[in-house]
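can u do me a favor
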């Protein structure tokens, strides 16, 4: 049997979000879920065709009663609650340096939370 060459790896790509307001670098194999089903206007949703993982970018409303790291955790847990997540896990919460913020004249601080939520797929039981 002749040897087959491995399939070339698909490169990452920059993808415009929210009509081009900003962009994200997506991993190989990421699919835009809005091409498959309706997605709310405040979300950009991507899924991976092989790993069954999803990436959701969501615009959130300011909650003045929480600030800093606690605001990141609040929103993560709030979204998980709305999605009826069975499990929530925060891996890390890190501040972004203000010099790296494109909107630094409008935003005093920004945080990145990395975590996992176990959520049932649409139309599936938990």
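np, heres the sequence
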């Amino acid at each position: 049997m002749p040897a087959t060459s491995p399939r070339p790896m698909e490169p990452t790509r920059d993808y415009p979000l929210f009509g081009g307001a900003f962009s994200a670098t997506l991993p190989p194999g990421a699919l835009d879920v809005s091409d498959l089903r309706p997605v709310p206007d405040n979300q950009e949703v991507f899924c991976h065709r092989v790993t069954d993982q999803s990436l959701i970018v969501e615009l959130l409303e300011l909650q003045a009663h929480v600030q800093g790291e606690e605001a990141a955790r609040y929103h993560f847990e709030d979204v998980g609650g709305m999605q009826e997540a069975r499990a929530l896990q925060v891996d890390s919460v890190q501040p972004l340096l203000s010099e790296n913020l494109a909107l630094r004249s409008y935003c005093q601080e920004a945080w990145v939370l990395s975590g996992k939520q176990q959520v049932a797929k649409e139309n599936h039981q938990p």
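The beta strands are 13-17, 22-26, 30-32, 43-48, 54-58, 87-95, 111-118. hope that helps!!
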